[in-house]
Amino acid sequence: MNDRTTSPLTARRAVAEQRARDIAAAWQRGDRDIRALATRHSVGRDTVQADLRAAGIDPTDRTAPVDEPRMITTAELDRAQQAFARDSAGFTMDVRMDNAGYRHLHFEQGTAWWDLHAFPGGLMVRGDHGAFVFANGSPDIFSSFRFSGVDPAYWAQTLDAGTARSWSEQRFRDWLTEEAESLGVLERARKVLSENNGYDLEHEASARWALANAYDELGIAFPDPGEVDLYDWDEYYLWTMHAISAGIRAYDQAATETTTP
Questions:
Q1: Rounded Cα distance, 257 and 261, in Å
Q2: Beta bridge partners of 166
Q3: Could you tell me if 34 and 163 are in contact, meaning their C-beta atoms sit under 8 angstroms apart?
Q4: ∠ CA 162-168-170, rounded to 5°
Q5: Run of H or E residues at 106
Q6: What pLDDT, in 10s, does the model give residues 94-150?
Q7: Is there a contact between 121 and 34 (Cβ–Cβ < 8 Å)?
Q8: Is residue 157 packed enough to be buried (19+ CB in 10 Å), middle (13-18) or exposed (0-12)?
Q9: pTM
Q10: 3-state DSSP call for residue 252?
Q11: By 3-state DSSP, what share of the chain in percent is helix, strand and coil, each rounded to 5?
């Protein structure tokens, strides 16, 4: 028997083990959305929960500490703020509920819109840039946000749904270039990095597929999550941070105008 032959059962087990490692790593990075993890890995939510429990993680504990991500730079925050400003210039606010800690604020500008749903202990933000749920136990989460300001690292630790960090094509390209250069296969790796190779490296699944197909030529395997972090701050998450801040400022300004004689 050829020792290099892999049985279908062995291959399926290897895929399942890699998926479980990826799910556990995503959870530890702060990605606590069971449904999103299931969709990303094309499995059911029961499978995600089973993978987490097998890794010693309680899938019901959304408050477990998050692995420290790369510190965000001032330039990145500024770019996110500029993107939000472009999308939301001249937005309007509609206060649809404001009752003892329960608030529903709707914001709109052209095709851009977002809602803030505040409740004691938490905040849900939803709109054309995705949906996020934050829970930090504060009786008035608006007060918490006024105190902390736009602090992506802190609020990532309070996420109950949504993801603060997502796949980074640039980090993948940088890592693959460094690996290929060290192995003397940089020219061959450029075929994988080429925009004309038929793979969309903007997505993790496609990047995995591209590297797997090029393994015989490059000898480079996709890294385990614990070895290399190929995720970075999600642009929609950073946009949402500024949307929350701008929404609360607009709410406060309206309240001041209402109470001023």
A1: 8
A2: 232
A3: no
A4: 160
A5: strand 102-109
A6: 898 888 788 899 998 877 888 999 988 889 999 888 889 998 887 888 888 888 878
A7: no
A8: middle
A9: 0.66
A10: helix
A11: 50, 15, 35
